[in-house]
Each structure stands twice: as C-alpha cells, then as structure tokens.
Amino acid sequence: MLTLAQACCAQGADVPLVRTPGDLAALAPDTQAIEFYADDAAEHYSFEHLPNLASVSTDEQSLVHLADLRTVKHLEIWGLEHPNVALAHLGQWTNLESLRLDGGADTLRRGLRHLKANTKLKRFTTTQSLTQQSARDLGLFERLEYIAANFSRFAGLGTARELLGLPNSKRFAHVELHFRDTVEPEVVRLLAKLPGLAVLDLRWTTQIDDFTEPLRGHEGVREIDFYNHRLTYRMMQNLASCPNLERLHLTCCKGLGDTGLLEFKDHASLQVLDLSYVNGVTPRALKRLRCSKLQNLNLVGCSGVDADSMASVARLPALRELSVGGSESFDDTSMALVARMNHLTSLRLHNAVALTVEGWTELLRMTWLENLNVERCEVPADVLVLLTALTRLRTLNLRGSANMSDDLFLRLTELPMLRYIACDTDRLGEDAQIEVHKRHPALSQVVRPPRNTPYQARWMKTQRKLAELFPEQIRRERLDDSEYWWQD
Fold first, then answer.
1. How far apart are CA 469 and CA 464, in angstroms?
2. I need a surface site. Which of 88, 170, 253, 414 has the fewest CB within 10 A?
C-alpha cells in the first residue's frame, strides 16, 4: 500500500510539507492533502482556512494540533509509539474512511475505541500487533472492508476467534495478516473461515507446521509469503488449489522439488512467483511453467536456471518483470535469450557472476526496458557508458555495480524519461549532484557512499547542502527510495 505522499506523486500532485504556523497559513484554501510535522508543540496551528482538507500524513507528536479537525477522511500516523494514548486526541473526529498506524512495537489494545464515532471507516492498516481487545473493537466500524495488521502468537488463538466472531466479518473484502514467531494450525483453521482472508505473510515466522489444509480451495487468498521454510509436496498442493492466488513468494525455501513447483505450472491466476535462492528445482520444472497471467518472475540464485529454461521463460505471454543472476548457470547464452524478450518492462540482474563482455553487450539490445536494476555485478566500464542507449528507462539502479564518476553520472541522468537513479560512489562530486538537481528537478537521485570511508563525511556535507538548496526534491527522493525498495 502506497503512502499518501507516494500516491499523490503517482498522480502528478505534490503534497505540501507543513512544519510551522507560517507554512500552514501559506496554503491555498483548496488544499486537500498535507504532510504535517509540527516543529514546536507550543505553537498554535489553525486549519480553519482549509475546508477541503481530506488527507493528512503526520506523527504522534503532532496529533495534539489536529484534535479540532473535522474534514479529514484519510489519516496516516508515523512513528506511533503509544497508540492507545495518542489516538485519544482524535476522539471528536467523525469522517475517517481510512487509517494507517505505523511504528513502534506496542500492541494495539483499547486505542481504537477513541475513534468509534468514525462510522464510515473502510480501511485500517497498522504495524502494531492485534490483541483480542483491538480485534473486538474493529466491530465498532460496520463499514470496515480492508484490514492489514501484525498477528502475534501470544494472542493468536483468542484474536482469531474475535475476528471471526465480529458481526461485520462477512463484509471484510481484504484481510492481510503479517505473522511473527510460530503459526499454529488452529489459528489458520479459524482465520480460513474469513471469506476475505487475502494475504498471509509468514516471512518472519520461525516454525511452520503444515497449516495449509484449511486453506485448500480458499477463494479469497491472494498472496502467501514464505522465507527459508521447509515446504512439503502436500503443502504445495494445498496452496495451488487456491483458485485466486496471485502472488507466491518462496525465497530460500527448502524441500521444494520439481513435483511441488509443477503443481503451479498451469495456475490460472498466478501473477508473481518468487523462486529466488530455491535449490531442488531443475530446468525441467521451469521449462513446463505455462502460467498465462504470470507477470513477475524472480529466478535469482534458483537452481533451475539454464539456457533451455530461459528459452521457455521467454514464451510466458504475460511476463513483464524478470529477476535473474546469482549463480554460474546464468551465463552469456542465457543473457542472450533474455535480451530477446521484447515484452519485458523491468529487468533485475543480481550478482551475475558468469556474464562476460559478450553477455553485458546483449543487455544493450533491450532498448524497450523501463526499469533496470544491475545490482552487485561487475559491469564493464564501456558498457556502463552505453546504457544511455536505453532511452525508455524510467528507473536505473546500479548499486554495487558502478563506482559513479561525475562524467558518467551526468551522462546517465540525461536519459530523457529517467525519474529515478540509484548508485554507489566514493568520488562523485558535489557540483555534479547540484548540477543534476538544477537540470532535472523531477529526477530522484539516490547516491550512497561506502561506509567507514573518508568520503562518507564529504557525502554527509553534500547531503546537507542539497537539502538546503532543494528541500522539496530531497524530500521526494527519500520517499522514492522507499517506494523503490524492491530494487535493493
């Protein structure tokens, strides 16, 4: 889910940043969205001249100044350490339709009761863990349709029962749960009764028993995320039976052989499949993938990659985003096959250790690419300069692959459609960065130095100067660096 600022940027709109009463007074009366981070708690902030203000992104310390607002429909609170106390400031609000609570390790207990007058609330997102009390309080919002929250095993069974027992639980169109610690099969059995159960994020769980049986054939499940877990053939069968599953992440998973993967070979709904660093899958299985809607495939470090399997991947009709590399098996021949996939819009090459100059030259054929991530690769210097031929690029990430110089930086930032560039450097000059900010105000440039080097102090000084000269651009760059997290 995008933040307020990212959503507005995607629509071509800038969200003004308000820190002082002067910033607030300068806003046009028709302003609809702001980021509000009060510099001084003792100051008075008046919102009376903003009758159309509907969206606010703020932090816990600034909430006290928002108590008298009545028009806000969409609220994001960041750095929220004490949700059960801080939300009391909003006790008089009545118009909220979406709420996002982010930050802190505190569990969400009775805080939602302060918002019970917001009967129009439809979307609720929190990084706090639900408790039995907070799950029960979700019943206060009869129109609630979307829930995303953390789920802790310490209150898991009771919380699951509360969610299932809510009078409005049948209205939930999307329930997204991020699990911690262990996952108890009984908890999943209860949650599976929610028709809106859509996302199960299990990446941070340390132990998984076979909990998938209750999910067999579940029509609501859209996404399941694993990381470094041992999966059985039976578990894969159960997951493959979910007819509307769109995203399956299996990074570093064990026990996943050809038979397990082949359960998904003709899955009608699968759009994203992550097989990064999966051992046990052979080219035979990859060659038989025929998922008609598969758009995003991650094969970095996957044992099944070779020239034959890449030739088969090239025939996937809907494929738009591909991630490869991470092993000796992705070589120049494989790269040549990738370079002929003219339906791709995004390519990620990660630690492509087997590529020679011949393979890297193949990359230059892909003039249709919109997003390119070349990460932790030894890219020949001659090839880096020629990346200017990829004139449709909107994002370019060269972290770990290029020690950016002034000349190369200036050349690459002249790409006509480029909106984001990320790189490492221990020699990029301040003048070059200032020049690019002047020439290309819509371009986000994320430059990072090696740690614990003399250049780091110089880089910090440059960042401070850039923030003084181009405050709005630097703020957007920090947002964009979060938005393009997938490229890290």
1. 9
2. 170
Q: Distance between CA 242 and CA 199 in Å, rounded?
A: 12
For the chain, the structural domain boundaries read 370-488
Sign, CA torsion 336/338/341/345 = negative
Closest CA to 239 of 259, 258, 263: 263
Sequence-ordered strand ranges (E) for 119-173: 123-129, 146-151
The reported pLDDT for the residue numbered 102 is: 92
Contact 222, 199 (CB under 8 A): yes
Q: Cα-atom radius of gyration of the chain, to the nearest Å?
A: 25
* Most distant CA pair in the chain, distance: 67
How far is it, in rounded angstroms, from Cα 286 to Cα 427?
Answer: 43
pLDDT digits (tens, 9 = 90+) for 2-40: 555 545 544 445 789 999 999 999 999 999 999 999 998
Provide the pLDDT confidence category of residue 103 given band limits of 50, 70 and 90: confident
Q: Which residues of 101-111 are buried (b: 16+ CB within 10 A; e: fewer)?
A: bbbbeebbbbb
pTM above 0.85, yes or no: yes
How many C-beta atoms lie closer than 10 Å to residue 62's C-beta?
A: 23
Residue 437: strand, helix, or coil: helix
- At 486 the pLDDT is 38
